[in-house]
Amino acid sequence: MKKGRYRLVKVLLIGILMAVAVPRAVDFEQAYAASKSTVVRSVSDIQQILLSAMNSHQVNVTFVYKGKTKALKTQLKQALDQAMESDPYINYTIASYGYSYRGSPSAADVTVKLSYRETAQETAYVESRVKSILKEIIVPGMNEHEKVKAIHDWIVIHLQYDKTLQKYTAYEGLSTGSAVCQGYSLLTYKMLKESGIQNKIVEGTATPEGSRTSQLHAWNLVLISGSWYHLDTTWDDPVPDQKNVVGIEYYLRNDKQMRKDHTWTKPYPEAATLYRNTLSALVQQGGNKTSFYKKLVKDLQYNLYEKSEIVASSAQLKAKAKASIQQGDKSIVFRFHGDEATLIEALQHLYTLNIKGISYNHSPFEETRDLKVVVTWK
User: Fold this and answer.
1) What is the DSSP string of 139-151?
2) With 216 labelled, which of 142, 191, 208, 355 sits at a CA distance of 20 to 30 A?
3) Distance CA 333, CA 344 (A)
4) Whether the Cβ atoms of residue 182 and residue 91 lie closer than 8 Å to each other
5) What DSSP designation does 338 have?
6) 21: phi then psi, degrees, rounded to nearest 5
């Protein structure tokens, strides 16, 4: 029987609150001169103060702004946005912010209130736990390709999607074993960054299979050997969870591949390179990592692009299944050249191999008219 794929809605929620008090008409210069608060004169100064406060999980931030206050509201908003955007982890762990100020046309007392999805202690736990995990899965001599694969697989295996839609942080993902996409992408960001791999968090929407409704979603962009790739650890994790099963459909994809069900409007680095071409070139180069690259080609099922892997008849399918059975396997993945009716006819012949409980699912094999087929048996 054909198995359908089910994906739970993935949600990204970020609360942003603002409160601005209109400057009062008083003689503020004397109060300013007597103030012991930090004095700032530019958006850059404000940004640095806020970023430092956010890193230390400060709730109330106060300072004196010296300058024309007519545009202070705009400057505060700009500084807050720049401070958060300079650090993706901070950006998505700030739950809300608000600000107020009072003073004269040339100086003002400013108060910024911040709230966080993670406490300082929880963020410290994440940092400690990430370092501990990386010591287990990253060995000396690993390059960027090996590190990304190890991190991706660890997250997919050890996290489950939070069906309650309540767990948004990397801390919740690590401490409870489940989170929504925001938690997945934050943990992915932290682990990649700690491993020395530049990456970003992408904010956009995604359309679950079988649905016409897009949902808010978050995933990562990863820079490897000078090229950017999309990495969605949330959607590579099967729902419902399957122990030790790691998806590959959203592993290091380019923009064109990702846009089949993901969208984004904010400006992000272009991901134009096909990762299978990158791996093919690395295999051709040879070297001490060649065996890893060859295994990765197989694990990511890039071998299905080879003409020798195409199945077009019952005899070819039967031979492929027989070889897998002899190796003790319970499943095969292959590229089928033909329509679903022809596929079903070919599958009937597998019963002559004395296997039971045959089931299958298929999907279009990208950039071709063929089918990608997964067959399992008992």
Assistant:
1) -TT--HHHHHHHH
2) 191
3) 15
4) no
5) S
6) -95, 135
Nearest one of 59, 190, 200 to 124, comparing CA atoms = 190
211 in helix, strand or coil?
coil
Q: CB-based burial of residue 146 (10 Å sphere; 0-12 exposed, 13-18 middle, 19+ buried)?
A: middle
C-alpha dist (Å) from residue 11 to 176, 217, 234, 240, 314: 18, 6, 11, 16, 43
**Cα 278 from chain centroid (whole Å):** 21
Q: What is the DSSP string of 162-186?
A: -TTS---SHHHHHHHSEE-HHHHHH
264-321 pLDDT tens trace:
999 999 999 999 999 999 999 999 999 999 999 999 999 999 998 999 999 999 999 9
What backbone phi and psi angles, to 5 degrees, belong to 80?
-60, -45
DSSP-derived pairing of the beta strands 227-231 and 251-253:
antiparallel
Return d(Cα 292, Cα 141) in angstroms, integer: 13
Q: Please choose, from the candidates 282, 220, 210, 280, the residue with its C-alpha nearest in 3D space to the C-alpha of residue 252.
A: 220
